[in-house]
Every structure is written in structure tokens, then in C-alpha cells.
Design brief:
The complex is a heterodimer of chains A (121) and B (108).
Chain A (H helix, E strand, L loop, with lengths): L2 E5 L3 E2 L5 E8 L8 E6 L5 E7 L6 E3 L7 E6 L4 E6 L8 E8 L8 E4 L3 E5 L2
Parallel strand pairs in A: 2-11
Antiparallel strand pairs in A: 1-3, 3-8, 4-5, 4-9, 5-6, 7-8, 9-10, 9-11
Chain B lengths: L3 E4 L2 E4 L5 E7 L8 E6 L6 E5 L3 E2 L7 E6 L2 E6 L9 E6 L6 E2 L3 E5 L1
Parallel strand pairs in B: 2-11
Antiparallel strand pairs in B: 1-3, 3-8, 4-5, 4-9, 5-6, 7-8, 9-10, 9-11
């Protein structure tokens, strides 16, 4: 069974930092693109970042470029999101997701339960 | 970046009725790389339809997707009580995923 479990969400002040983790199990982690998607409570979904199987391609939404870094450890089957210079509008539930197939053109088919990041003074 | 416009914002219907949801990308979505999700409060999105019209594993056949290019539709043929939720469209034709703002299907 595919399982994704996020952790690391917390209450942090503007300008602060957090590191989110996503532990994967039940599938060959190194074969899949992985994604971070966030959702402001009561609002829609927004892709934050994604990373290729070998970690050599990474893409970010414009609003987090230069502040967030996505990475992965295939040996430990883990996905990470390093978040710096956090802003109030970074508040939301952060989901990690795996594509339906190993192709880069694959919708998010498996999602974790999400971890809440709250940026507030 | 491809912007996905969903309509209507809210759909008020009764159980047993047909629901028709629209998603219009700002530019053509390559090879119908468009998906639909259902999301209920406190839960992660659930994949319903991908590649424009293919039902994901375990999805009932009352859900169907159609369309191509810049005009896609999700149809729920007969609403069941568990279908009242928010529905999002999603394009994955590039690593720069985008999502629509959602259509809420509520009980009338």
C-alpha cells in the first residue's frame, strides 16, 4: 500500500524557517517524481515544488523561488521542503504527492494527510 | 503557466440529479493531460479522472470526464449523498502543475 506521511509543520513567525519531511513507503520511491502542494484553509490547491526521480530537475512556483528548496533522499525514501524567509501568505496545509505513473506527465494520485504550517506573529 | 477556470463556483443540486462541471484552460492542454479531483473537508484530494476521461481505480462509473484542448467537463450522472464535495481540475502537461479554484457541489 502506498503511504505518504508529512511532518514538520508548526507555528512560526514571519521571516522564520521550517523543514518539512515526507516519509514514503509501499512503492519504489526512487522511480517517481514527487511534489509538494499546499492549500490555504478553505481555499484551493497550489503546487509549491516538484522534483525529478534523481533530484536533478526541480521546479518551483514563482512565489517561493529563492526561499524554498525541495530535495529528496532516495535511500531513505524521503522528500523534504526547506522553507526560509516565511511569509504570512505561506500559511496552509502542505501535502506531498506522488504521480500515478513514473512519467513526468502524471497527475497526483497518492497524497499524504498534510501538515499545517502557520506563519503568524 | 496555464490558468484553469472552473465554473460554476457553486452548484446546488439534489441527490439523484445530474451535475455538470466545467474547466477551461487558458491554453490548450497537451494530450488531454487534465485530471479531476474530489476533496472533502479535512481530507486530501482524491483522484477521480485523468487523461481527460479515464476513471481512476475504484471510481464509480457515475463519474465521467470529457473534452480536450481548452474545454473539459466532469459529469456526475446521478448524485449520491457522498458526492457532495469540492471538485478541482488539474493540468499536468508540464512539471508546472496548476489547479482550478474548484466547484463546490452542495445539497439543495
Amino acid at each position: 500500500e502506498v503511504q505518504l506521511m508529512e511532518s514538520g509543520g508548526d507555528l512560526v513567525q514571519p521571516g522564520g524557517s521550517l523543514r518539512l519531511s515526507c516519509a514514503a513507503s509501499g512503492f519504489p520511491f526512487s522511480n517517481y517524481w514527487m511534489h509538494w502542494v499546499r492549500q490555504v484553509p478553505g481555499k484551493g490547491l497550489e503546487r509549491v515544488a516538484n522534483i525529478k526521480q534523481d533530484g536533478r530537475e526541480k521546479y518551483y512556483v514563482d512565489s517561493v523561488k529563492g526561499r524554498f528548496t525541495i530535495s529528496r533522499d532516495n535511500a531513505k525514501k524521503s522528500l523534504f521542503l526547506e522553507m526560509n524567509s516565511l511569509r504570512v501568505d505561506d500559511t496552509g496545509v502542505y501535502f506531498c504527492a506522488r504521480g500515478l505513473s513514473t512519467s513526468r506527465f502524471s497527475p497526483g494520485a497518492f497524497w499524504g494527510q498534510g501538515t499545517l504550517v502557520t506563519v503568524s506573529s | 503557466e496555464i490558468v484553469l477556470t472552473q465554473s460554476p463556483g457553486t452548484l446546488s443540486l439534489s441527490p439523484g440529479e445530474r451535475a455538470t462541471l466545467s474547466c477551461r484552460p487558458s491554453q490548450s492542454v497537451a494530450s488531454s493531460f487534465l485530471a479531476w479531483y474530489q476533496q472533502k473537508p479535512g481530507q486530501a484530494p482524491r483522484l477521480l479522472i485523468y487523461d481527460g476521461s479515464t476513471r481512476a481505480t475504484g471510481i464509480p462509473d457515475r463519474f465521467s470526464g470529457s473534452g480536450s484542448g481548452t474545454d473539459f467537463t466532469l459529469t456526475i450522472s446521478r448524485l449520491e449523498p457522498e458526492d457532495f464535495a469540492v471538485y478541482y481540475c488539474h493540468q499536468y502537461g508540464s512539471p508546472l502543475w496548476t489547479f482550478g479554484l474548484g466547484t463546490k457541489v452542495e445539497i439543495k
